[in-house]
């Protein structure tokens, strides 16, 4: 932020601040609900402070694509662990459709589940965005 603040008579600071806020707000709902760690939020905020508010949306999109592929790979690799999870999820959904009542069934389960390190997906999304920008594609500007 200090680097961008020295550029363009202080207007770069606003550019960096908007990027930081945008990157943080994009992941805030996932972090507050427990679906993601706050380190991932800070990482996307830092990326946003470097590349700006508009560009961080594209990094978020690319990170979501990589994160989806990464999550699918983890599910396939650990299918035995996830099979019972999907079975319970199916029964909860079926009970909701038939009885119109929602009863969560995963609150008591805190097993040793595989973790998805979303920082890797954010880094790959950032590299793809930067690579496309260097290659001359004018996205996010």
Fold and architecture overview:
- The protein is an all-alpha fold and 141 residues long.
- 74% of the residues lie in helices and 0% in strands.
- The protein has helices spanning 2-6, 11-32, 38-51, 53-77, 79-99, 118-134.
- Helix 3 runs antiparallel to helix 4 (53-77), helix 3 runs parallel beside helix 6 and helix 4 packs across helix 6.
- The protein is elongated, with a radius of gyration of 19 Å.
- The two termini are 19 Å apart.
Helical percentage: over 70%
| Rounded Rg | 19 Å
Strand and helix order: HHHHHH
Number of helices: 6
* Low-pLDDT windows of residues: none
Largest sheet: none
Cα distance spanning the termini: 19 Å
Structural class: mainly alpha
Morphology: elongated
Total number of strands? 0
Tell me the strand percentage band: under 5%
- Give average pLDDT, whole number: 83
Short description:
This protein is an all-alpha fold.
Spell out the blueprint of helices and strands.
Layout: H1 2-6, H2 11-32, H3 38-51, H4 53-77, H5 79-99, H6 118-134
Helix pairs in contact: 2-3, 2-4, 3-4, 3-6, 4-6
